[in-house]
Amino acid sequence: MSPGSRVAPPDRARETPLVVDDIRFAYGKTRAVDGVSFEVRAGEIFGLLGPNGAGKTTTISIISGLLPPESGQALIFGREAGGASGASRARMGVVPQEIALYEELSAIENVRFWGRLYGIRGAALEPAVRLALARAGLAERAKERVSKLSGGLKRRVNLAAALVHSPDLLLLDEPTVGIDPQARLHILDVVKSQAREGRAVLYTSHYLEEAEQICDRIGIVDHGRVLAIGTVAELKRLAGEGPVIHLRGEIGVDRLQEMAGRLAGVSLLGSSGGAASFAALDAAACSALVRDLFQSGLRVEDLRIQEPNLQSLFLKLTGRELRD
Amino acid sequence: MGIHELRLAMRDPGSIFWILVAPFLWVFFFGFINRPDDPTQVRIGLGVVNEDGSAVAARLVSHLRWEKFELVVAESAGDLPAGERAPSRTLTIPKGFHEALERHEKIDVILHEGENANPDATFAVQLALHRAIVRLLADESFGPSRPEDDLVRVTSSYAGRRAIPSGNAQTVPGNLVMFVLLVALSSGSAHIAHERKSRILSRLAASPLSRTELILGKLAGRVVTSVVQVTLFVLLGLTLFHMDWGSSPLGLALVLTSLVACAAALSLLGGALFASPDAAAGVGVTLSLVMSALGGCWWPAEVMPPWIRTAGHVFPTAWAMDGLHQIVSWGGGLRDVLIPSAALLAMALAAGAVAVRRLRFD
Amino acid sequence: MRRRVRTILLLTLKDLRRRLADRLALALNLAIPLAIAGTMALVFGSRPGEEPQAPKLRLVVADLDGTPATGIITGASQNQEAAKHLDVSVAATREEGLSHMRDEHFAALVVIPKGFSDAMLSGRQATFEVVKNPAESVMPLVAEQGAGIAALYLSTGRRLLGDDSKTLAAMLQGDDWQDSAAIAALATTMYARVHGAGNWLFPPIIGVKTEQKAAGGTNGFNFIAWMYPGLIVMGLLYVALMQMRDLLRERRSGTLRRQLVAPVSVAEVLLSKLLAVAAVVAVSMVLLLAAGALAFHIDWGAPLPLLATAAAIVFTTTGFAALLYSLVTTERQGEAFGGILVMVMSLLGGSFVPPQVLPGWLQSISRFTVSHWAHDALRWIVAGGGWSDIAQDLLVLAVLGATFIGIGWAGLSRRYARGAL
Questions:
Q1: How many folded domains does chain A comprise?
Q2: What's the pTM?
Q3: Is domain C57-201 annotated with CATH 3.40.1710.10?
Q4: Nearest Cα to A267, choosing from A252, A284, A280?
Q5: Contact criterion met (CB below 8 Å) for C207 and B109
C-alpha cells in the first residue's frame, strides 16, 4: 500500500466522513504539511502516526478549519472544512492536544457549555451532558472544578466535551499525552466504542503501541508527508518478513556499510553515535549478519533483534526511530 | 539564583516597563510639572474689574501691582479679554467701595477663580491680596508708603545644605521608594506565586539546595532586582534630574539597603500568602500605592493630618522617606539615618520571619 | 439571526460566569482606584459645604530678644483663635530651635534676634529670621508668607503707634515701666490711635470673598470631587485591559481554538468577548460611581446625562482594550504596553494633576487621549453640567470607541484568517 492521492469520487466524497486531498501548509519557510492525502470512513479508527513535528497537529488544524491550506482541500461529509457555514463543524468533535477547558468551571459546566455551543438545546442537553460524562467515567466527579482534577481526569473531561453532541466525525490529537496507563486505557476504550457506534475517528499519536492497539488503518507521517498507509498487518508486511537488528558498540560507519554491501539480504538502515540498525530479509540473512559481527572482532556492547513492526517500518522509511 | 531571577525579570516586558520605564516617566512628568520657578520672577495673572472707579480703588490696584500680579484692568467684566486670553482669576472691586470705606463699613472685594485657575497658586493669591489690602488701609490711615520703607523685614533661608531645595528632592526619593515597593510587592510576589503554581518551586525543593538556601536565593532575587532599580534611580537622578543625593554616601547606602531588604522580605511574604499570582499582584499594587500615599511619597508629609503622619510610620515608606530626607534635604550623615534604617530592617525581619514560616514550595 | 444571538449570549454568559468564579481577581481590579480615592479622602477629604481643613502650621520660635514686646508677639500666636491654625513651640536658642525643627518636623524656625523690639519701637529697621525646613515643601513656604504678613502688620502697627512707640521703647528699657501715671497716659494715647485707625486695620475692613467654579457644583473646592472622576477613568481603563487579556489567555489554554472549531463564527466569538468585557467594565463603573456617592458624597447630577456618559466611557474603554489586544501577541506584552498607555493617558488627561497645570503643548496632546474626554465629561457631570456641556465629550468618546473597535476587530479577524488567533 503506497501513499498517494486517494481522492474519493465526488459522490463518495459526500458519504465519506473525511477526505483529505493533497493539503499543503508552511509556517514561514518550514513546510509543515507537504501533500497529505487520506480518507477516514465511518466506523473506522484511522491513525496518523509520526514523531513530534511531523505535521499531525497542523493536519488536524486544517481539517478543523483553523488553518487555510495553501493548496488541496479537506472535505467533511463533502463540505469544505474551512467553510463559513458551521454545518460541517457541527458534525465534528475535536479533542485538542492541550487540555482546552475552563479551569474555573466544573467538569459538568464545561461539558454543558460545549454542548450548548454545538447546538444541543432544551431538554436534550442534560441527558447528553450526563451521557458524555458517564462515557468518560466522570459521573462522580462532574461537579468538581477542572482545576482540582488530576491530569488524567482533565483529559477525560477534554474527551467528554468533544463527545457531548454525538459527532459523526471525531478528531483526537494525541489525547493521552502525559497521563497514567489506567487513564490511557480508559480513553482508548472510549475511542474504540465510538468507532463501534459508527463514528469516523481520526486519531493522531506518536505512541505506536496505541496505534497498533486501536487503529484500523494507519498513516505514517514524517516531515509533513504520508509515507505509508494501510492496516496494521499491511504495514507490517511493508516492513518486511525479516527482522531488524539493533546494535551498539565501537563500530565505524565504513565497516558497517562494507558489511551490509557484502552480505546478501542485509541493508543498513541507519547509524549514529555508536548505534546502528540493519534490516535482514529473512532469518538466514539475520544469522549471517550476527555471525559476521562476532567474527569481525568489532566491540559490540549490545545486540537486539526485533521482529518486524511499525517501529521498524518507520525506521526503514525514514532511517530514524519513531521516538527520535 | 539572584542573577537568574534578574534575568527572568529582564525577559518579561511587564517587569521591564515597571522597573525601567514607568518610574522615570513618572518622575520626569511630575518634575516637569512641578519644576521650581524663581519666586522673584513669578507673576500671577489677575483680571481686575474696577466697578467703583474711585481714587482709592485705583490705589488698591497700584498695591496689587506691587504684589507682582500681572494685571489686566477693566471697568466691567465684559471689557476683560475673553477666550484663550481671558484671565483665570478676576478681582471685582464693587461699586460703592470707596463710600463704604469712608463710612468705615465692611466691604468685600470678590475674587473669582475660573475653572482654569491653577489651584496651586490660590493660597499665594489670597495672601498677596491680603497684603495689598493691609497696605492700602495703612496708607489711607497714615499716608502713602512703599514696601521698601517697611520697618520690619523678614529674612528667610533654608536649613540644610542648599539655598533652595529643588522639587526633585521630594519627587525623586518619593518615586524611588514607591516603585521599589511596587515592583517587589506586585511582580515580585506574583513571580513566587507563579513558580509555586507551575511547580517550579517544588522542583527547586527537590534539588540538593536546602530550604534555607532556597529562601535566601529567592530573597536574593528580589534584592538584586531592587538594587538595579535603586542604582538606576540614583544614577538617572544625578544625571537627568540633577538630584543632589547629599554628602553621605554611606548614609544613603544604609537607608537604601534597608529599604531594599524590607521590600525583598515583603515580596517573599506576598508570595507566601497568596496562591494565585493575580491575587498577589493585585494586593501588592493596592498595598504599595496606599503605603506610598500615607508614607509621604506622593505629597509632602506635612500636608497630611498629624495623626496620619504618625500612623503612617507603621509602613516602611514613611521610614524610608524620613531617612532619605535626612540625607538629601538636611545633608545628614550616617548617624542621622540610624533610626529609620533600623525601623526598616526590623520590618524586614518581621516580614521575613512570617514569610519563612508560611512559604510552601508545593 | 436568533441562533446568532443565542450563540453570542451563550459565549458572553460563559465569560461572565468565569469572572464570577474568580471574584477575588475582580475585586482586586476595582480595589486600586477605590484604595487611592479612599486614601486621598483620608488625607485631604472634607464634606461638601465644609471648609477643607488645612493642616496646622507648626512653628518653632526662638525669642532671643526676650522683651515683653516680643513676649506679646509670641503670646499672640498661642491664643485660642491662633491655636486653631498654629502649633507653636518655643526654643531658647537658634540651635535648639533648629534641632527641634529637624527632629519634630516643624515647618520653620522663627528667630527674633536680640534688640528686635528696641529697634522696631525706636523707628529703626528691625529684621527677624525665618529658617525653613528643607525636608518639607509646602508649609515652610506658608510660614514664610505668614511671616511676611506678620512683618507688614508689625510695620503698620509701628506706624499706628507713631511717636508713642519711642516712649514705649524707653519705658521697656528703663524704670519708667514702674510709673503708673506714665503708663496710663501712654495707654490713653495708644487707645485713641488704635480705636481710630486700628478699627479698620485689625482686622482689615476690606474682606476678600472667593467664588470658585469648582467640581461639586458648590462654591468651595472639593478635592475628592475633582480627583475622583480621574481615578474612575484610570481604573476603568485598567479593568478593561485586564478583562480583554482573557482573549489571549483563552488562546494560550486552547479554549479559543476549540470555540473556533465549533459551529460558531469568529465574529460571534469576538463580539461576545467585547460584550463580556463591556459588561464587567459597566459593573465596575456602577460600583465606582456608587462608592463616590456613598463614601465621598459626590453628587453625580441628573441620571440621564450620567447614564450617557457612563455608557460612552464603557464603550470607549472596551474599544481601547480591544485595539491593544489586537496588536499584541502575549499577555505580558498587553500588560506592559497597556500599563504604559494608561499611565501616560492618565497623567496627561487630568487623573493626577489638574489639566490647567500642564503647559499648553501638553494640554494640546492630552486632547488625543481617552482620559481627557472621559474625565472632562465626568467633571462636568459633577459640576452640575447638562447635555450641552457634555455633548462634545460624548461625541468624541463615541467616535474614539467606534474607531478602536473597528481597528481592533479588523486586526483580530485578520489574525484569524491567517490562522494565528
A1: 2
A2: 0.77
A3: yes
A4: A280
A5: yes
Q: Select from A187, A218, A236 the last residue of a domain.
A: A236
The answer to whether residue A22 sits within a structural domain is: yes
Asked if residues A103 and A145 have their Cβ atoms less than 8 Å apart, the reply is yes
Of A186, A201, A236, the residue that ends a domain is: A236
Lowest mean pLDDT among A91-100, A195-204, B39-48, C257-266: B39-48
Write down the pLDDT at residue A37: 94
Among residues A125, A128, A14, A22, the alpha carbon closest in space to that of A75 is found at A14
User: In terms of CA atoms, which chain A residue is nearest residue C7?
Assistant: A117
Q: Does residue A153 sit in the same domain as residue A24?
A: yes
Q: Which residues of chain A have pLDDT under 70?
A: 1-14, 82-86, 240-241, 321-324
C377 Cβ contact partners less than 8 Å away, ≥ 6 residues apart: C309, C312, C313, C390, C393, C394, C397
Residues A63, A182, single domain; the answer is yes
Interacting residues of B306 by C-beta distance below 8 A, sequence separation 6+: C55, C56
Region B44-149: CATH code: 3.40.1710.10
Q: Any bridge partners for residue A49, and if so which?
A: A205, A220
Say yes or no: A63 and A76 in one domain: yes
C19, C40, C128, C206, best to mutate vs chain B, most B CBs in 10 Å: C206
C393 vs chain A: nearest CA distance in angstroms?
39
Domain that holds residue A280: 241-307
Cα distance between residue C90 and residue C113, in whole Å = 14
A295 compared with C79, residue with greater pLDDT = A295
Percent over 90 (pLDDT), chain B:
37
Beta-sheet pairing, C57-63 with B152-158:
unpaired
Nearest CA in chain C to B60: C206
Chain A residues close to C264, C-beta within 8 Å: 86, 117
> Based on the domain organization, do A280 and A207 belong to the same domain?
no
Domain(s) of CATH 3.40.1710.10: residues in chain B: 44-149
Cβ <8 Å between C7 and A117: yes
Is some CB atom of chain C closer than 8 A to the CB atom of B308?
yes
Q: How many residues does chain B have?
A: 362
B324 Cβ neighbours under 8 A, 6+ residues apart: B173, B176, B177, B252, B255
C262 contacts A101? CB cut-off 8 A: no
Do A67 and A158 share a domain, yes or no? Answer: yes
Please indicate whether chains A and B are in contact, defined as at least 3 beta carbon pairs under 8 Å: no
Q: Check which CATH number belongs to the domain holding A301 and give it.
A: 3.30.70.250
Q: Choose, out of A59, A62, A63, A117, the residue to mutate when testing the contact with C (most C CBs < 10 Å).
A: A117
Closest approach of A262 to chain C, Cα-based (Å): 52
Domain match, A100 and A213 both: yes
Pair B61, B73: CB distance under 8 Å: yes
